[in-house]
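User: Second chain of the day. Same drill as before.
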Amino acid sequence: MTGVGAAVEPAVLQEVNAALQAADVARATTLARAALDAGTVHPVLLNLRAFWFECEGRDTEAFADLQHAQKLAPENVGIRNALGLAHARLGRYRDAVACFDAVIALDPNFGPAYFNKGWVSEALGELLTTRDCHAIAHRLTPGSPDPLAGMAAIAGRLGEWREAREHAERALAIDPTHQIAIVALAAVERVEGAPEKAEARLRSLLTRTDLAAAQRSSAEGLLGDLLDAQGRTGEAFAAYTAGNETLRRSHAVQYERPGGETTPMSLRWLTAEFEKVRPDDWSAATSEPVADAGLPAKHIFMVGFPRSGTTLLEQVLDCHSAVVTSGERETLDAGTREFLGSPSDVRRLAALQGAGLRRHRRTYWQRVQDHGFDVAGRVFIDKQPWHTLKLPLIVKLFPSAKILFCLRDPRDVVLSCFRRRFLMSAPNYEFLTIEGTAQLYDATMRLSELYRAKLPLQLLQLRHEDLVADFDNHVQLMCDFVGIEWEDAMREFAAHAKTRAITTPSSVQVRQGLSREGIGHWRRYREQLAPVLPILQPWVERYGYPPH
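Assistant: Same format as last time:
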């Protein structure tokens, strides 16, 4: 096998470089693959074959080639940047950020690394970091529309509409066809009260054959919102369906692969396992140590199905002087991988004691610290709706923690999950069909009821509609449960939310304050929801919502 540098056949690299200079990437990759097959190894050749693997959808093989190339050329910023992109494609966002940071350390003027770190940070929910990275990328590459379009999209998510328009228009001045900038400008026009202009812009965009799946889905979703606001519910539902189907086709290979375990499959075996569990199996959880200088005074988990009002409640609590909230940062991933992967894992969790418990608690608090949260002596609210599925892990690691369980009319929840755009994950993939959303709601609530029957949970259930109807009394009820005093600042959550980088689809609604606008919204879609209403009816009755 030929090594790096002078040992490589010069003619191979010369041919490859000539093809690249002629913008003939296809020939360059063909030459690189042939050279590697013949035993010639060089980082440039590995990088090109990795690109070919990516185009073929073979991300794992691309990643292996890029790792090899990076070891051979550790200071090559292009290869390390490509490795960061490969990490991101595989969902390893923290590793991707580390790669881009390494590129920036090697070459602080390499604009693509800032841009890539920006959109990966957005996937991690770090919107302010995203904004800063895109701004630096724009300064370093002023002729590129991509950073400007990214800044426009982030400004829209932050409710900064004037800035969103300015950035989108500047991006479009460079490239009038830029997909992200067009969607961002349409979002601005919708907010500014120009729905006809926004609709025309989106419909024109959707005629393009080169539209990326993510941008097609985003445009269809925004079009659905425009149509919904005009009462054109049938057309709106069709737009949501089209956008979701685009994403479903794009992600089916990842989330429907043969032999893979989907979230519904996981919920089925978890439910079967906990149907057999005796409460005594979990009642003797080892107590936690008393809070030390690095730990919070109180520890609360906020759970519930997505779109059940957790973001509103989190922002109310975040106004309190004693409270730190998590903003849906992932904190339990290590414990989930070890203890919630199979029935035998769950049984090991039930038996976990001593050093094992302490190790996983330390891992959790290190994860919290890595996210930049200073929780020492504070009240820490770990808000993540999908932690509903992880209540056995929570109760085992943190038996003194309290649980805030958020509810909302199941029909509004299911419709909202289907309509909104989420960062793709195994459970969120189910939201791409209305049937999958309803079935996931049903399975999640069945499991949560089992958990509540079998686990020693300190739990308060709060309905979104009750909070909207009687804010002060229900916030006081929550404060009493958490163990904090009422503060008038909590009434000012809408103004406070405008200063926060809220990453969930609820960000715009929360910044507008209390509203009954979304309550009962499902009735407008009664016809479209008809196939799934029987699935949801038991939960409508169970949680005391009106039948019609």
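The chain has a mean pLDDT of 90.

User: Great, on to the next one.
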